[in-house]
Amino acid sequence: MAAFLVSYQLNKTKDYPVLWEEMSRLEALKTMDSVYLLDWRNDSPDDLSAHLTHYIDEDDSLIVVELVTKPAKHRCYKGTQNWIEARF
After folding, report:
1. What's the average model confidence in pLDDT over 24-36?
2. Whole-model pTM?
3. Fold annotation for 2-87
4. Where are the domains of the chain?
């Protein structure tokens, strides 16, 4: 399992409970408004990106970054430091 950072931009101020429910199902940690940290069963950012694009619209943006070193953070949501420390 690999650790990833996912960030998205949902356009046209639409509501996205389907995406948020999927992030919850994947046990992703919301670290900022549109940024999540999560473990993915597969080492491929492309696979995770392809999976998540089923939950957003065609005009939305998404980036998936595999975390290979310990990320630095500043004033992220509660739980972020513990998530990072548990993996790095």
Report:
1. 96
2. 0.90
3. Alpha-Beta Plaits (3.30.70)
4. 2-87
